[in-house]
Amino acid sequence: MPIDDFNITHEQAAQRLTNIWQAQNLIERQEWDLQQEEDDEANRQDQERRQQQEEERQRLLEEEQELARQEEWKKNRNKFLPYNKVPISSAILKLLSALAICKLKKGDYVEMHHFTNKGLAEAEASSCSLNNDAFALMKDNNGHHSFIPITAAKAKETIIPDKDLTWAEIDKAAPVYS
């Protein structure tokens, strides 16, 4: 270095120091900004990872709850049937005769007479008057003998064939029949 470089004024030295500081400060600010961007990116990725973990945890929880609901449904199907939420009717139900119920259980044809007002009234009267534990021996169309409740045997005697019913009786029996 030439000797006259050491002969600088205080103002020149201050200016050089200021320039050096500004250059160094600019570099450090750029490095700081770069570090902040990297930190922000790392924080964003960490936040995304936590959010994905939370979503996965929530999805697993929902699946677990759904499996529990399905298991509960399998164990207690009646609890989830739609009729559980239907209000209870205050109307008195008229039950079919024992003969009609036996035929329905077997899948046999049931005459419309059982569903008419007269047939329902006969079933109501006969069910109260006879012992339900008593049976009678009856012969069916195929010639086979079987025991049926006495109430059903008695009801067989008063059945009106479908062809002899009036249209008014059929009209009243149809909604009960379905």
TrEMBL record:
Basic and acidic residues: bias regions: 42-63
Residue ranges of region Disordered?
A: 35-63
This chain's protein is named Uncharacterized protein
